[in-house]
Design goal:
Blueprint lengths: L2 E2 L3 E2 L4 E11 L4 E2 L3 E2 L5 E7 L4 E2 L3 E2 L4 E11 L4 E2 L3 E3 L15 E8 L4 E2 L3 E3 L3 E4 L2 E2 L4 E2 L3 E4 L2 E3 L6 E2 L4 E2 L3 E4 L4
Parallel strand pairs: 1-4, 2-5, 3-6, 4-7, 5-8, 6-9, 7-10, 8-11, 9-12, 10-13, 11-14, 12-15, 12-16, 13-17, 14-18, 15-19, 16-20, 17-21, 18-22
């Protein structure tokens, strides 16, 4: 692990390690948010296992690709604020500057502690398992149009998850 007193901003960055970890931030501590948006892309595993994020995790429009493996993992992480995965709701969805969030591979938040809410909004697409087993979401879990698909198993796993607020599950808009 390492320590960053403020935010970790990787907006627009591209990481490529198809046979391993594209980013290894295991046990990283940040004093601010982690931002993986604005054209961010990773081929290979993005690992934030056991990280402590001092604010939100924002991945509007992020692309994570690790087919047959782990695309994004935040298991046992503590995120003080909110987790945002999808399109930026403050921008027009038809705007090319507001791309969708896409993950091919496992998105793992097993036993993660999220202080506020978690938003899997319109523009969220996961092709592989989304694992929230044992995770705690401090406020609401909102799936407003997100797409989950996994032809080889469960698309969403939430055994023993705790949602302290509401769970909103609305249809995908076409």
């Amino acid at each position: 692990g390492g320590y960053i007193g403020g935010m970790l901003g990787l907006d627009g960055s591209a990481f490529n390690n198809p046979n391993g970890r594209a980013i290894n931030a295991d046990s990283l501590v940040t004093g601010g948010l982690v931002s993986l948006r604005g054209g961010f892309s990773a081929v290979g595993e993005v690992n934030f296992v056991g990280a402590i994020i001092g604010s939100a995790l924002v991945a509007y429009g992020g692309k994570f690709f690790n087919s047959g493996g782990i695309a994004l993992v935040l298991s046992y992480a503590k995120i003080t604020g909110t987790v945002y995965l999808g399109r930026n709701p403050g921008k027009n969805a038809d705007n090319a500057e507001n791309p969708p969030f896409e993950a091919t591979g496992i998105v793992g938040l097993r036993s993660a502690k999220i202080g506020d809410g978690m938003f899997l909004n319109d523009g969220f697409t996961a092709k592989g398992e989304v694992n929230l087993m044992g995770a705690t979401v401090g406020l609401d879990l909102v799936r407003a149009g997100g797409l989950f698909e996994n032809p080889n198993g469960q698309a969403l796993r939430m055994n023993r998850a705790k949602i302290k607020g509401c769970w909103y599950w609305t249809p995908r808009l076409t």
